[in-house]
Amino acid sequence: MRAYIVLLIAIFLSPGFSHAGGMDDDPLLTMLVVEQLEIRVTDGEDPLVWEAEGWIGKDLNKFWIKTEGEYVDDRVEEAELQMLYSRALAPFWDLQLGWRHDIRPTPERDWLALGMKGLAPYYFDVDAALFLGDAGRTAARLQAEYELMLTQKLVLIPEIELNLHGKNDSDTGTGSGLSDIEAGLRLRYEVRREFAPYVGVNWTKLYGKTADFARDEGEDVEDVQFVFGVSFWF
Amino acid sequence: MKQKTSILNIDEIYLPRREFVKGVAMGGALLGLGFSPSRLLAATGSTDSQPVLSGTNFNLNLAPQAVNYTGRERIATAVNGSVPGPVLRWREGDKVTLNVTNQLAETSSIHWHGIILPHEMDGVPDISFNGIGPGETFRYQFDLKQSGTYWYHSHSGFQEQTGLYGPIIVEPREPEPFSYDRDYVVMLSDWSDEDPSNIYSKLKKSSGYYNFAERTVGDLTHDIQQKGLARTWADRSMWNQMRMSDRDLSDVTGYTYTFLMNGQTPADGWTGLFKRGEKIRLRIINGSAMSFFDVRIPGLEMTVVAADGQNIEPVTVDEFRIGVAETYDVIVAPKDDRAYCLFAQAMDRTGYARGTLTPDPSLSADIPGMDPYPILSHQDMGMDMSNMSGSMDHTGHDMSGSKNTKEPMGNDMSGNKGSMNHMGHDMPGNEVSMDDMDDLFEEDMSGQAGHGSNTKIVHPPTEFGPHVDARAENPQARLDDPGVGLRNNGRRVLTYADLRNIHPTPDPREPEREIQLHLTGNMARYMWSINGIKYADAEPLRFKYGERLRITFVNDTMMNHPMHLHGMWSDLETGEGQQIPRKHTVIVQPGSKISYLVTADARGEWAYHCHLLYHMLGMFRKVVVS
Q: Which ipTM score applies to this complex?
């Protein structure tokens, strides 16, 4: 944590230049993006799922937070928090380095996170990361999405997320190899740029040992859900 | 000075409703101060006259002013309570004194755009002077060595966006080489109810925030129907690989802007009166923060007689594009007893400013529809077109017609693709000073004075890194290109190639050296720079006093950039070697190159920048002439 505080201070204190007209071309800005805040319709209790990120920083260097999780039956079922230093490496790519903390399911797990986030050719939003945990645990995650503009305000967003793990972690029900794939298709209407309700479908499937762990717990290994929610930023 | 005012807090200002400015409606101040009868008639013939101040001594107050352009009240930064500020009418040869008092809560300034004056009178905080602090009065005083149409504006913060601008007319000592019966100022501007710093933040967070003309699935299916799948794919692939949008015409659009003509909204419109048979001089000034306009008067041709205040050989057109900070003087001669619409559509077609020229205030003119949304071509990307798949619509522009296109078109597409892989490049070059840059570009002097540059285009190492998203591989001089959205539209559209100085080129010397400056940026990150170096990190450009030098701009971005050199003229190399026009602001079209000559005849420190308000913070240089 101390490293982050030092980093934050460094960003805040980075030289303020005297510009002609007293204008700073690179002001310190903050942004919070709640990409998904949605109800997933299931047979049982409907979970509330969130995926959000935020940053504070300047053009090329930012302190970045990402979180995602699921809330169901009055408790947090899954929750993850990442705190990252983000540095622009290429015109469309940021290197993101930091700490990932899995809060739920327990036991909590900590990881060193190393990722690339940006815009690939053909306008694919990509976030790819490697994670190094305790006891030789490793993981990788690839997220990609595309914004297909039906109109200037109606946007269809296909997205996919893959998670891979280096070894079994029975405590958290994670198996080695490809552990899960999640694919979604959401139709968003931008009432304003900053606020867009959406509906969609979300498909998840567990693979390999992860699926075995789930079966042992009596859980589904594949699920298709209707979702509705809002995305917003400021 | 009577104005020894305390710092005003905007929240504490009592603003009676009655004083709210709706449009301009400031009235008064028109009392004949040395006007000729025809001029006075002209001034009073306008239904919504801006205040006019003339003479040699002026008191200008910069203060908050409530305005309402959209149905919502907002606080503008006004000059003498007026937005735009009063017309300043000066006379060539006079010494003018302007006491500018700042009643705003923040430092302010006035820059006299296009006026040749001592550097300490130029009004750029931190370069010419310290700025005018709240409650302070600064006395500007300078001799007028020129005549024509100019303007003034704040050079502090984003005050220009919030209303701190106004027209300048300098009457000539000698009679004009053209005649007219009426004389109207037409000042175009863009107003937003949003706080400009919020606009800037939004652009940094989401650069397409104001763009509602992006490609949709409908465009794609349309293209496939028209051109077939293979050609559509070929056309689209370059844009998609580059992650560039061919719909990226302007950063800030009519989504937030209300476009104004002499402070009048499109709903109200500005009106100028005439009698049939009269000739009307329109002094069109683009005082916008970010908006280019395409100006025309359906049913009337316009004879352009001056550009940036300087008389040119008259050229008759149907339409012209006016970049931010440019001015054009045109003469129109309506032959019919009817109303004409003076139509200034924003380049991105998201709105327009309008006025009416009419013999009778009760008549109204049809407002034309806006032209289709202009779509950028590969040419606007600085791409070589000779080796393209042949499927591209190059909008019919004939490159061979370019006046000083001498460079062979050699780069092929595979080279372009290859160059994109440089994007991961580190940026140690950021430490390369401008002096080194100069050395880099000074070797090969070619291109006769007035005919532009043939120097090899070299992208300096500082252009490679996360802060620059593209480099024009094969930028062409496109002086005879009216620009995207105006090509082959069936109207005679002014181009820079049409501008021919009425006087011989004042300094006929060959340039001693050439400085190549690349206009660079990263649209998605909303970062702007010159040679990949933003102002905060840049060494000043150094001109030797008395030298004649050539500036060549290479636009590595997909935006138009109106580049403004303070203190000295930009003698635009149109190829008319003996009569090249003098400008103070030169549009550098996307993916193009353009050259002009400068005589460094003004000692001191000067500003040199893109005049788009949200670009200039980074796309800016200090020039030192010594």
A: 0.92
